[in-house]
Structure prediction request, 197 residues.
Amino acid sequence: MITIAEIKHQEKLVGRHYGAIRRLSKPDSDKVLRQKAARAFQEAFRFFDYFNGSAPAHTPSLYQRIQAGELDAIEEAVRFLEADPCCVEAGYIKLKICKALRSAVLPESHRERLRQVILRNARLDRPMAEFFRYAQLAEALYSPEFAAAVCALPATKEHWRQRRQRLISALSPRTPVPVHCVTNNWRGVPPGIFSLY
Prediction:
């Protein structure tokens, strides 16, 4: 099985290769530079093959096994979310995994690991189209400690504030949200959406 460290290492390599491709494939590049770009491009494709070998299978059976509560399928999915690869199709796989995990019966150890994944992703600086699924998963992973950790998330950047509010609104049907968690300057939330008592 491929480890998280190996995935992260390969991810850094492909980032370097992608940068080389962009720099070296300009029209005014000479023949040597174009050859270097071609080699970098081949290395990037090797990474995608490597990634596809590390990603959970795209078969519906994996998601059915997660929903059935099979621990090996759940472990594979949690490890993939912990590794958080960022390349072609990774977001789609994360969406499907989060959806399957949301309806699965999870052991507490996996629930805690997923809470940490969600909290870490809420603080990332890169865009995350799949974060809405993380928020839906957060609702299924509710605990008072998790809700307190969500309220303690930083809100200094706009996208951090949006992710925090999304998590708070996902958790608020379960419990009243403390007044200090609600930020009035978050765009897109109609007034009165949180139950404050």
